[in-house]
Amino acid sequence: MGCSNEHAALATDVLLKADLRGIDSHGVARLIGYVRLWENKRINARPNITIVHETPTTATIDGDAGLGLVVAPFAMRLAIQKAEQYGSGWVSVRNSNHFGIAGYHTLMAVEKDMIGFAMTNASPLVAPTFSNERLLGTNPMCYAFPAGKYPPVIIDMATSAAANGKLEIAQRLGKQVPEGWIQDKEGDFTTDPHALKSGGSLLPLGSDRDHGSHKGFGLSATVDILSAVLSGANYGPWVPPFVAFLEPPADPVGLGIGHFVGAMRVDGFRPVDEFKSHLDNWISRFKSASTIDADQKVIIPGEPEMEAEADRKQNGIPLVDAVVKDLNWLAEKFGVNPLAP
Amino acid sequence: MGCSNEHAALATDVLLKADLRGIDSHGVARLIGYVRLWENKRINARPNITIVHETPTTATIDGDAGLGLVVAPFAMRLAIQKAEQYGSGWVSVRNSNHFGIAGYHTLMAVEKDMIGFAMTNASPLVAPTFSNERLLGTNPMCYAFPAGKYPPVIIDMATSAAANGKLEIAQRLGKQVPEGWIQDKEGDFTTDPHALKSGGSLLPLGSDRDHGSHKGFGLSATVDILSAVLSGANYGPWVPPFVAFLEPPADPVGLGIGHFVGAMRVDGFRPVDEFKSHLDNWISRFKSASTIDADQKVIIPGEPEMEAEADRKQNGIPLVDAVVKDLNWLAEKFGVNPLAP
Question: pTM higher than 0.90 for the full model?
Answer without folding.
Answer: yes
